[in-house]
Every structure is written in structure tokens, then in C-alpha cells.
Sequence to fold (446 residues):
Amino acid sequence: MQIAILLYDRFTALDAIGPYETLGLLPGAEVVFVAERTGLHRSDKGSLGLVVDAALSDVTAPDVLVVPGGPGQTALMEDGPVHEWIRAVDAGTTWTTSVCTGSLVLAAAGLLKGRRATCHWLALDQMPALGVEPSGERVVFDGKYVTAAGVSSGVDMGLALAGRIAGDFVAQTIQLGIEYDPQPPYDAGAPEKAPAEVVAALRDHGRSILAGKRWRDEAVTER
Amino acid sequence: MQIAILLYDRFTALDAIGPYETLGLLPGAEVVFVAERTGLHRSDKGSLGLVVDAALSDVTAPDVLVVPGGPGQTALMEDGPVHEWIRAVDAGTTWTTSVCTGSLVLAAAGLLKGRRATCHWLALDQMPALGVEPSGERVVFDGKYVTAAGVSSGVDMGLALAGRIAGDFVAQTIQLGIEYDPQPPYDAGAPEKAPAEVVAALRDHGRSILAGKRWRDEAVTER
Fold:
């Protein structure tokens, strides 16, 4: 079972690593990182460099496609080689998936028309213009399309999909293997739960904050 | 504020990326991946390659040290350049931290003697021989030493430490930024919670399973 994770410059690392660390533990899984060009790709914050081993033409029939999100997603919204590749491999996938703003790329490639899907909460409002019905759920299954909410939700998506692919025993073994017994120190992980000033900070300066830049009382140069 | 994440061959990716994606969003954070040699390092499953930009000698005064775990930890238990570096930079850190079996490396370097610390649940029994009092808690603070349980716990550790460093507002903003509102599909993330056969599978074949190899009805060649 080949699992292809699409990368591009300025991806968000955890978007890619959540599915990698869950789906990659499925029996028989072979994970391949794929991009328009092979070699070094820098994440959104620049300090992490991941090496891509396969070009688009090297990966023609993955069983599972994963498209992570990140600031670099905005450069992937026009039709071109990446969209053509996504459409071509999607024709043969068992599951086509995304994390965070990766769903906007799937939608722009035309795969999510008329479907329910999710995205990072700050980008959900971009979905209707792409013909997608936005959902606030953390993981959304619509046929073979599985979309997850922001960044960390790829772990939940990976486990839910692992259960569909290989059954509860395997998925629970993966969960215990990565000791996923989450105990966040705050209950602030969704806009309905976080303090209003926290939601407002991200609405106003999300791009800057998520790029690892300063905020609040410091200079915020980007919105 | 410099955050140094120590890498080595056969690290577990999520161990490193959890703290990266949380502490890396602190105001003024500068993350650097550091290793005995710069360049490509492969994770435990081999399919992920991360590029290390800094050699040990390039990083002399990090404010925060993060040591992730993974199968490659076993090669870092003897004294040598990595232990010398860990001891040298620890003398100046504000926080010295680990995820998963990274705490065994900190312990082997002599930093956790007489302290409470945690580790991946499958490796907790290795701690007493290193002079450490093992704790089953997910995140353990003992002085400036912060250790986290297996793999995914680095996200919780990163958020808890972000709160100590920069206060609740910033930590909650990071949590909402990465939309960390965990909803695992099973309650199987700790050995006390998972079905007995799941715990047994990992006790018997953990090394093979966590390396992304097959298990159960398939050939298990490694224990």
C-alpha cells in the first residue's frame, strides 16, 4: 500500500507528519514524499528542511494521497502540473486526503465539487467559492475523500483512516504505539472553546503568528 | 530565544515535530536542528529525510534543548561527543527537554540523576537503572527538566512549556493556531486504557510495529 504525501515549499510540518506517523505504521505501508521537484523543501517557518525523494512522474499509482496545508498552499491554487498530477493519481486512489489548507488544493484541482469537507478554521470561509460545503467537524469522510481541520488534526485523521483501512485492532495499536492520549494543558483548540481575545489575535494576525513571527505587543508586519 | 532540537539517524519524526510546531511559534523563537553531522538524517521508518543545518559546535548556547526519541536512541547511550555537547549546553539552558526515549539519552548523559522523568511507556522500566524515578505522567516538570511520554506527547509538552515561557495567552494562541482540539477515534492511547491484546501486541512486537513493519498474522522478524 503506497501512501504519497505531497510536499511543496512553505508546507506546515505537523500537517504532513501527523498522517506520516499514523498511516505510515499500517502493515505493508510504504510512504513516499513527492513534489514537483525532488530535494530540499523548507517548511513554513524555514527552520525545518525535508528532503523529497520522488518527483510527480515517479509516483503514478498511490493507494492513499495526502495533501498537507501551509502558507505555500496559496501558490498551488492555479491549474498546472500539480493539479494535473493530483487529478491523475486521484483516479486510482482508494483514499484521497488532506490536512488543513491542503483541502483547498484538492478543491482547486476540482476534486471536492459538491462534497462536504473541512480545513483550518481560519480558511473554512474559502471553501464555498470552490464549490465545497464547509464542515466544522475535525475529520470529514465524504466517499473516498477525507479532509481534516487545522495542523494537528492530521493525527486524528490518520487514526480514523487507519481504522477504515485495517480495522480497529491495528488502529488502536498505532494509537498506543505513538502514545496518543492527548492532554492539552488548555481547552483552547477550537474557536468555540478558546478565549475571545485568542480567537481575535489569530483572526487579526494569524498569518504572522503561524509563520513563527512575533505578535501582540510586538511589531506585526504581515496580516 | 534559541530552541535546539537534537537529531540523529532513526529518530521518530513526530517526537521532534510536536515541540517544533508549538515552541517554534513562540514570539522570538529561533529553531535550529542540530546533530553530530549536518545534512540528511533519516527517520525510523526511513521514508522521511530531514536536513540538519547545524553541527554540535555551531550551537553553543541554546535557551531550550529538545531531545526527541526513536530507535536511534540506543546508539546514543554511550558517552561521547553528543553527551559532552548535551552537558555543555545544558549548563546554560533555561529548559532542557525530551520526548519519548529522548529522556534516556538525557539520563545517560547524567542530567536526570535523582529526578522524576517520563519516557515512552514501553521504555519506562529502563529509567531506574539510569538513576531516574520513572513517572507515568504525560508531561513531567522537575526543575528545568521537562520530559514527555511517547511520540505524540511532545505536542502537550510544547504547549505546557510555551505557557511557562510566555504565559497562557500565547500558549492558547499557539494551541488554537495548530487547532489542537484532539478527538482520537479510540480511547487507546495509554496502556491502562487500550485493550489487553493491543498492549500485548506492542509488548511483544513494539520494535517491529513502530518501525513501520508488519505484525500479527504477518512475519515479524524483529522483537
